[in-house]
From TrEMBL:
Residues 82-125 are annotated as: Disordered. Residues 82-117 have a biased composition (Low complexity). The lineage of its organism: Bacteria, Bacillati, Actinomycetota, Actinomycetes, Micromonosporales. This is Peptidase C39-like domain-containing protein. The keyword Magnesium does not apply. Keywords: Membrane, Transmembrane, Transmembrane helix. It comes from the Bacteria. Residues 127-265 form the Peptidase C39-like domain.
Length: 290
């Protein structure tokens, strides 16, 4: 009986030696269990026969190196493909770093659109206006405003403008009133009041008057000036208004250094040229609307 069991065990172990590693492991466990069971069975039959137990263990020990060798060879065949180096080229996304968006943005110059420069005003310009002499001796204010408005294409009567200005027989109060009414009549309220408070205009005030006249006339608007005293025009004409007077500036030349005056006081001399410096001094202690 012992020989029969040993023969079966050997055949089983030889078959396991050709199986895959995981089957070898399972078979080894089964063989050990079978061997143990055989020893136990023999011990149960004859307690005085220990030799079969040694023979069975020897058979297992004899086959174990073969099993280990077979398992090692099978494991080597499985491990070889796993250990083989990969010949595939690395992915570009794995080897190259992603671009830094901050660096990319800073490297790209931002396009800036420069504002077009304002067109240079002409060196001379005279507005097309509708002259009208003042209808009363104290309507110089309404007449000057009316003549200036006519250059802008705005119509108005002297009586209507006198009511707006608050003009009385004492005249029109100040340049603040002419500025207010001009802005009521002209779209966009472009007029501003400029004062020359001293007894004579400073160079800065003269330059500001020149720039204001050029800007207004270039835009198609006349300027109203409140003057007092005497002045001489470029042709030698003498103009005297000791109690005050209003005139309209309707043009300029020499880049504003000389201005064209529409004067409602005398229809015989409706207009004349005067230097901007002389006009600035004439407006001293008063002001203008531009």
């Amino acid at each position: 009986m012992e020989e029969h069991v040993n023969d079966q065990l050997k055949r089983h172990l030889r078959r396991l030696a050709t199986e895959r590693p995981y089957q070898v492991v399972a078979g080894s466990a089964a063989a050990l269990l079978l061997a143990s069971g055989t020893g136990a069975l023999l011990a149960a039959v004859d307690d005085d026969a220990p030799a079969p137990q040694r023979t069975t263990n020897a058979a297992v020990a004899e086959v174990a190196p073969r099993l280990d060798g077979a398992a090692s060879r099978a494991q080597a065949r499985i491990a070889a493909p796993l250990a083989a180096p990969s010949s595939a080229a690395p992915s570009p996304s794995a080897t190259s770093a992603a671009p830094n968006p901050d660096l990319t943005a800073s490297a790209t110059p931002k396009k800036t659109t420069a504002k077009p420069a304002a067109p240079k005003p002409p060196s001379s310009k005279v507005l097309d206006y509708d002259y009208e002499a003042q209808s009363t001796y104290y309507y110089c204010g309404p007449a000057a405003v009316r003549n200036a408005l006519s250059a802008t294409g705005v119509d108005g009567t002297q009586d209507d403008l006198a009511a707006r200005l608050g003009t009385t027989e004492m005249g029109t109060n100040s340049a603040y009133d002419t500025t207010r009414v001009l802005n009521e009549m002209v779209k966009g309220e472009p007029y501003r009041t400029r004062l020359i408070p001293g007894g004579a205009a400073t160079p800065a005030e003269t330059e500001r008057l020149r720039a204001d006249v050029v800007k207004a006339v270039s835009a198609g608007r006349g300027v109203v000036v409140n003057i007092a005293g005497d002045a001489t025009d470029v042709d030698g004409g003498w103009h005297s208004f000791p109690g005050g007077h209003y005139i309209a500036v309707v043009g300029y030349r020499d880049s504003g250094r000389t201005v064209r005056i529409a004067d409602s006081a005398d229809p015989a001399v409706p207009a004349y040229w005067i230097s901007t410096a002389a006009l600035a001094h004439w407006a001293a202690t008063r002001g203008y609307s531009a």
